[in-house]
Fold this sequence. Notes:
By secondary structure, this protein is mainly alpha-helical. 64% of the residues lie in helices and 0% in strands. It contains 13 helices and no strands. The C terminus is likely disordered. The protein binds a DNA duplex (13 and 12 nucleotides) through helix 2, helix 3, helix 6, helix 9 and helix 12.
Amino acid sequence: VIECNRVYDALLAEHGRQQWWPADERFEILVGALLVQRTAWRNVETAIVELKRRELLDAAILACTPVAVIEECVRRTGFFRAKASRLTKLARFVVAMGGLAALDAMPTATLRRLLLDLDGIGPETADAILLYAFDRPVVVVDTYLRRLARRLAGGDSELADTELRAWVGESIGETPALSELHALVVAHGKAFCRKEPLCNECPMQASCRSAVSVSDP
DNA sequence: CACCAGGGTGGTT
DNA sequence: AACCACCATGGT
Length: 217
């Protein structure tokens, strides 16, 4: 099958550098990762702005902020009751662990397990946090990557997450490239491949098919 | 009006 | 393990 490195180059050529994650501070990345779940990023931005305006975007402060106040800030991100509650738990976790600097010293696997134990943080959010807030070389597997890989494979069979991680990790191992790749995959998915089952308007389609047919006659 | 957005959780088969 | 309803608001 086609190498992920090729796909990365094609995506970069098509969409340009994305330079994720958009944030001023590291804790803002954790908050944004929670809030963006099943939500358009522009709605998250307004919530972040509101949290900043009220000077709440800090783990120690957010941990002591009444949940009702947090709900007001994040209402426009949807699922606001669950997300506000989860932000409180997240902030208290960071404080209890001794801050982000203390978490930096932990191995990736250990930190990932701790993140997954938190309410509202599943595999994708945990990996995005590891990649963008902790600079760990992690492959973020999302629905866009699954669709892209499935189409590149030319089939309808779904690849397992472990297969996807291997496919990406074998050709892309550095944090900066993995960061850019995830952002590019999302940008590409939003631009062309939103609907199943085709992406007829996708500029990559021709190169994808030729690359697949060449390596897999 | 229907459908989707940078998912995760809990319950049911 | 696979599947499902649910969470809730804002934009197209």
